[in-house]
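Tokens in:
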């Protein structure tokens, strides 16, 4: 499984051999762009699954559905990959109806029936619990998420799920990294795959390599019945919103910066950070053996010149 190429999952070679039917120029362009988007989504999700061994032979994957664009995209792409994957695995979609006022409880069941995927709706009135315990005006997200997590873990046990799939994407991962750096004093983000905090479940994020703009475009193309995320009346996470806007601004002004940040999460050099738990700084001794990862104390670090946009002047500060 680890040695398997992600193209075995996505079926890209076979897809490339299929001829595209004749279309009017405008229709053909839209169809071509949509086809490219689908291939990219399948490729990135397949790559993440293979690189982190997220899904194995015989797995039963519980896909958590919130009604947002990302969870719809996750289920949709996993269904496509399931038809092409070189292994057998099952999917079951799960939604937790927390009894928020105005929640359109028919939307997800009606949609899921059209997909043919088995699904389960769990009804738990966590909304009343949160409103009872959290004073008016205080943020409810922390308690709500803890309650939701515990319920979904229980449901995973009851359904016999071996993996729990969440719809967090690349931008969520980078936002969490920056939030932890800015406000938590930690180099920590969302892992692509990790054992849950109760030690009993494996949580996976198959959209780890996918940009949010691609899930948004796919949701628009597929016309998913999106359910608003503010039905509980909770305040938006302003810190996460600000960090998300900053990343989007960087992506516009400095192409490649966000991608480099994400690549850095997969290319960590513990000896060049400051955490003594990751590298034995106290025990470091001269060995007389050259090492490319050794400190180049008197060298100026060289980085590739940033890409320039038309009308944007790039100035290198010495």
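Residues out:
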């Amino acid at each position: 499984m680890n040695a398997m190429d992600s193209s075995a999952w996505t079926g890209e070679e076979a897809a490339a051999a299929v001829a595209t039917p004749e279309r009017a120029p405008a229709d053909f362009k839209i169809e071509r762009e949509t086809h490219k988007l689908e291939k990219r989504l399948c490729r990135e999700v397949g790559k993440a699954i293979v690189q982190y061994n997220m899904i194995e032979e015989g797995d039963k994957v519980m896909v958590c559905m919130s009604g947002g664009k990302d969870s719809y995209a996750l289920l949709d792409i996993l269904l496509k990959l399931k038809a092409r994957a070189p292994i057998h695995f099952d999917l079951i979609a799960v939604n937790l109806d927390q009894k928020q006022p105005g929640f359109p409880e028919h939307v997800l069941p009606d949609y899921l029936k059209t997909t043919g995927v088995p699904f389960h709706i769990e009804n738990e009135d966590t909304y009343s619990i949160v409103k009872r315990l959290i004073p008016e005006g205080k943020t409810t997200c922390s308690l709500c998420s803890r309650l939701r997590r515990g319920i979904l873990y229980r449901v995973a046990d009851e359904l016999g799920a071996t993996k729990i799939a969440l719809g967090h994407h690349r931008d969520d991962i980078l936002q969490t990294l920056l939030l932890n750096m800015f406000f938590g004093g930690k180099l920590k983000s969302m892992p692509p795959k990790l054992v849950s905090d109760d030690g009993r479940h494996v949580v996976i994020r198959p959209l780890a390599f996918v940009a949010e703009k691609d899930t948004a475009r796919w949701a628009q193309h597929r016309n998913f019945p999106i359910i608003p995320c503010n039905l509980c009346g909770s305040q938006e996470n302003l810190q996460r919103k600000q960090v998300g806007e900053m990343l989007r601004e960087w992506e516009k002004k400095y192409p490649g910066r966000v991608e480099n940040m994400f690549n850095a999460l997969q290319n960590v050099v513990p000896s060049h950070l400051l955490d003594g738990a990751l590298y034995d700084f106290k025990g470091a001794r001269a060995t007389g053996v050259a090492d490319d990862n050794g400190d180049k104390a008197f060298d100026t670090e060289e980085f590739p010149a940033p890409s320039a946009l038309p009308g944007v002047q790039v100035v290198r500060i010495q």
